[in-house]
Amino acid sequence: MDRRIFLKGALATGALALTGLDSQFARAAKAQWNPMNALPTELSKPSLGEQQLADQLINYARSLGASYCDIRMSRYLSQSVSARDNTVTGISDNESYGIGIRVIKDGSWGFTATRNVNEEGGKRAVDEAIAMAAANAKLRPEPLDLVPVDKVIAEWKTPIKSNPFEVSFKQRAEFLLTLHALALGAKPAGKKMFIHSSLTAGREEKYFASSEGSKIWQEITRIDPSTHITMSDPKKGEFASRSLFVLPQGRGMEYVENYPYHDEIAVAVAEASEKLTAESVKSGKYDLILHPTHLWLTIHESIGHPTELDRIYGYEANFAGTSFLRKKDVKDFTYGSDLLNVVADRTQDGGLATCGYDDDGVACESYDLIKKGELVGIQTTREQARMVKEDKSHGQSYAQGWWNVPFQRMPNVSLQPNPKKMSLDDLIKDTGNGILIKGNSSYSIDQQRYNFQFTGQVAYAVKNGKLGGMLRDVAYQATTQKFWKSMDGLCDQTEYMLGGAMNDGKGEPMQSNPLSHGCPPARFSGIQVINTKSQSANSKGGMLDYEG
Amino acid sequence: MAINKDILEISQLESLSKKIIGFSKSEWCEVSLSSGHSANLRFAANMVTTSGSSVNTVVHITCANGKKSGTVTTNDLSDDGLSRAVKRAEEIASLAPDNDELMPPLSEKPSYKRSAQFDDSTADASYAAGERAKIADKAIKEAKARQYIAAGFLDTEVTRFALRNSKGLFIGDQKTRTTFSTTMRNEDGSSSGWNKRAAQAFARLDSERAINRAAEKCAAWQSPKEMDPGVYKTILEPSAAADLVQQFIWSLNARDAEEGRSAFSRPNGGTALGEKVVNDKVWIYSNPNHPLVSGSIYGESGLPTEQIDWVKDGKIANFQRSRYWAQKTGAKPVPEPANIIMEGGTQLPEDFMATAKPEGLLITSFWYIRDVDNQTLLKTGLTRDGLFWVENGEIKHGVMNFRWNESPITMLKNITDMSKAVVTAPRDGSDRIPMLIPMLVVSGFNYASLSDAV
User: Fold this and answer.
1) What's the rounded Cα separation, in Å, for the pair B114 and B49?
2) What is the pLDDT of residue B116?
3) Does residue A217 register a pLDDT over 90?
4) DSSP symbol at A40
5) Closest by Cα among B266, B256, B406, B244 to B320
6) pLDDT digits (tens, 9 = 90+) for B186-245
7) Which residues contact A63 (CB under 8 A, 6 or more apart)?
8) Residue A301 DSSP label
9) Of A37, A152, B344, B359, whose CA is between 20 and 30 Å from B186?
10) Phi-psi region of B302 (alpha: psi -120 to 50; beta: other; left: phi over 0)
11) What is the mean pLDDT of chain A?
12) H runs (alpha helix) in B271-375
């Protein structure tokens, strides 16, 4: 492949958009980053030399008996600004470049990664991967059988409007300080307030080439802003926290610029303060209205993970766990109420798992996981599709870095809104004895994804169709299938929001996977709520109180 | 002996860091480097699934002028790449607002005690690769013989790391670490057992014992009984205890406590330093030169790690304290723990069970531990892969797993007895930090609800 195909779109993030000295430097650094470049390139796409090296290593692996080989030649960029109160405490710029080489030899995988992106280092890595595969083959009764994939020559970029790497660090630092000044200005008298923020931009520049002839270039951009407020009452020695509901997305700086910080910051400060004196919840059963700023993570834990095919087949038994879904449940299981429609989608706008192609070189797609409460789909890779008698992968292969082996990772998994008109106000009006929960705090679920206990950032009583006062110490416990069967209210598209996280952990050694979950608010009837202040051996009746 | 040639020697890190400092024109510069190889093997469903290895060298460069600093991380070690990284750090510093918390590098050259974290044979890539496959083979054979399904993970890491600053300090260290864990499940997935080992030297990893333990737990847990949620006497195996001890130790932070936002804050700006917060049997400390669990010889900015008590006679003895907070409050900086050692009794766990004859729920491992209430340090989590009812020190029957809500402070308060401390690694927490922890017997632990998970 000639590198000219890569020049398309070079001007989309072109030099005219530069805003400061540092970004000009970034551009210059980018142009020269690879010493193998004969000429400086406008974009950091693989040079002809790098593409030739990838081809050479694939051919070398084949000459050593590999039936399959793929190369990911990738550069990972991350820039972060962090602030505490009225101080910018750190600005950092991180870059990592290397190749990950995956081979199949004698029906078994081998994988080696190295920062030495040259013929000598690359061949050494291929040798190690081949030796590993050969050694492992003895411990593999059935040879790997990847489902076919189209040969693809393509490129894909996250469609961003404002490249965060081209916004000067100064601007990013000032943005956080302004935000903190707003919050500190709203602090109530007599309290102490602490505020932490960070703003991280990440980019994967990934060249994938395989022995099947695919050559895919991708540039995936993500932005991860966060702000946490802690309020303390120094006289009592008590404190409470409230995080802003802002979550990472697969977008550019425009996401941060458009986020309603000004509206939320004063509310967050007031809520952090109110939490110190709010009414402590009474344990019991409630109808829970879960806001999208909270519900996305409930979806992640109780729908996203159980529908990973590798978990169902025991591949994660030693670490992340298996699934309550058994092999025979795949595509034949009632997951929840009729209102439950869930889509797996690596093409979703703004999604953190959104890309053009997965790390098997499979084109990303959108498909149903759950339809009207029935499980109809499952997450697969090229290695796994045959397990469920499919001849096409759903494209869920992903590796955290060039140094990691790709494996099955969760795509964006989203709860579809109610086609019938239903606002959050309508849902509250329709609720007798409930609690509205917003934001995420503590999330814990067992290794087969049955039993979970989750908490939010804020909770409000809902009484006879009206929103009441704030409640604190609220946690809810449920089991997955019962919980989703109890969903009896769902809002429409106008209330839909996209949540997400950068750090979904799975695999050994553990890899982080960025992904998003969209949903509208939903209601769940008769869910067990516990009071977290009465949850310790020594606060239960005093029978075990410590003496001396 | 064949240590991967892509891993740099400490002498190479020394010259590389000197070169980097040489590129800097700023008031001061601090460089931290690490070069390592990690290799692993995973197995599941009685076969090898994925395995892999990677080699990398990373440098972190911080350049500062006055109160302004910038940090750059790169793995491009060419002269061009390094000089560009330094320029970039300096340029970031020129754009950064003043940071009042910025600490200059150490200007003195501290003396360091040399620990023995490195084992040559573990670092020998060809030796370790062969051994890894043998261990997986053993686990799979044992599983097949019992009609079980084995899964597991074996990881070896060799790392050389160093720190240099422009005031003349240079310190280098190296370590090897290996961990092995395995899960044995019966064929219908109705029972599961697990064990994990950690060692600095591959040869000291008792994989056979881990395999047998996991298989025995799977056998013993079949047909578990359901018990009502509530408070029970509890016996925590060292790995389970390690998870909650780790959670406790991470929360001992001077700044959080003194600013009033920690479980160890007290009214009107006070803290729990010196206060008796747990059972007076409890002594938890770090000692980087402990022969069984040697740890890093330096911490923040090259501060030497020393033997330090965290809890002695049940009283909080020290908080971890950053250099900035130490300067601000006129106290001594205390680096993060190099390892975590909890003194226990005199008998190894098995002998302890036989002679102390404890009663209660025996927990093999914990899973998915999360913070619930930072004011009380309340955590939630689950029991996993081996919860048993024990009488007279003997397993009576398996018990269905529980979700629990409990504070590690309460756990440490309620200790009634302990075995001798053994080398262990937590399942849920970080297994990068070496730990020596006893089996704990506690008078009460709070189980909140049932989990059907196996």
Assistant:
1) 39
2) 76
3) yes
4) -
5) B256
6) 999 999 999 999 999 998 999 999 999 999 999 999 999 999 999 999 999 999 999 999
7) none
8) I
9) B359
10) left
11) 90
12) 323-329, 349-356
Pick from A111, A318, A479: CB nearest B51: A111
Q: What is the mean pLDDT of chain B?
A: 95
Q: Binning pLDDT at 50, 70 and 90, where does residue B124 land?
A: confident
Minimal CA–CA distance to B261: which of A58, A348, A91, A228?
Answer: A228
Give the Cα separation of A336 and A447 in Å (integer): 20
Q: Does B181 touch chain A (CB under 8 A)?
A: yes
Name the DSSP letter for residue B8.
P
Q: What is the DSSP letter of B335?
A: P
CA A181 – CA A195 distance, rounded (Å): 10
* Whether A173 and B446 lie within 8 Å, measured CB to CB: no
Q: Residue with structure tokens 């009452």?
A: A233
Nearest to B345 by CA among B414, B416, B420: B420
Strands B230-236 and B360-373: parallel
ipTM of the complex: 0.95
Q: For residue A73, list its beta bridge partners.
A: A99, A207
B210, amino acid identity:
A
Find the distance separating the first CA and the last CA of chain A, reported in whole Å. 76
Question: Hey, what are B125's tokens?
Answer: 């890539």
Q: Give the integer Cα–Cα distance in Å for A59 and A68.
A: 10
Opening angle at CA A300, ends A507 and A199, nearest 5: 85
Residue B126: pLDDT band by 50, 70, 90 thresholds? low
- A543 CB-contact burial (10 Å; exposed 0-12 / middle 13-18 / buried 19+): exposed
Nearest CB to B48; choose among A20, A140, A508: A140
Judge contact between A344 and A379, C-beta under 8 A: yes
Q: Does A405 touch chain B (CB under 8 A)?
A: yes
Distance CA A60, CA A127 (A): 9
Among all chains, which residue has been given the structure tokens 């009576």?
Answer: B396
Separation in Å, CA of A349 to nearest CA in chain B? 31
Report how far residue A513's alpha carbon sits from residue A504's, in angstroms, rounded to the nearest whole number: 5
The overall pTM is greater than 0.80: yes
Beta-carbon neighbour count of residue A528 at 10 Å?
16
pLDDT at position A22 over 50: no
Q: Which of A57, A68, A53 shows the shortest CA–CA distance to A149?
A: A68
Sign of CA dihedral B261, B262, B266, B272: negative
Q: Tell how far CA B63 is from the center of its chain.
A: 30
Q: Please tell me the predicted confidence (pLDDT) of residue A26.
A: 36
Tens-digit pLDDT profile for residues A151-188:
999 999 999 999 999 999 999 999 999 999 999 999 99
CB B93 within 8 A of CB B66: no
Which conformational region is residue A353 in: left (phi greater than 0), alpha (psi within -120 to 50 degrees), or beta?
Answer: alpha
Q: How many CB atoms lie under 10 A from the CB of residue A505?
A: 12
B75/A95 Cβ within 8 A = yes
State whether A532 and B268 contact (CB < 8 Å).
no
Looking at residue A336, its pLDDT comes to: 98
| CB-based contact, B75 to chain A, within 8 Å | yes
B101 in contact with chain A, both atoms CB, cutoff 8 A: yes
Structure tokens at B298: 């330096």
Whether the CB-CB separation of A278 and A470 falls below 8 Å is answered with: yes
**Joined tokens for residue A275:** 């939490």
B58 touches chain A (CB under 8 A): yes
Burial of residue A464 (number of CB atoms within 10 Å: 0-12, 13-18, 19+):
exposed
Q: What is the mean pLDDT of residues B172-195?
A: 96
Cα–Cα distance measured from residue B106 to residue B127, given in angstroms and rounded to the nearest whole number: 40
Q: Taking CB atoms and an 8 Å cut-off, how many pairs form between chains A and B?
A: 325
Mutate to test the interface with A, among B8, B132, B135, B373 (most CBs of A within 10 A): B373
Q: Decide which of A13 and A342 is more confident.
A: A342
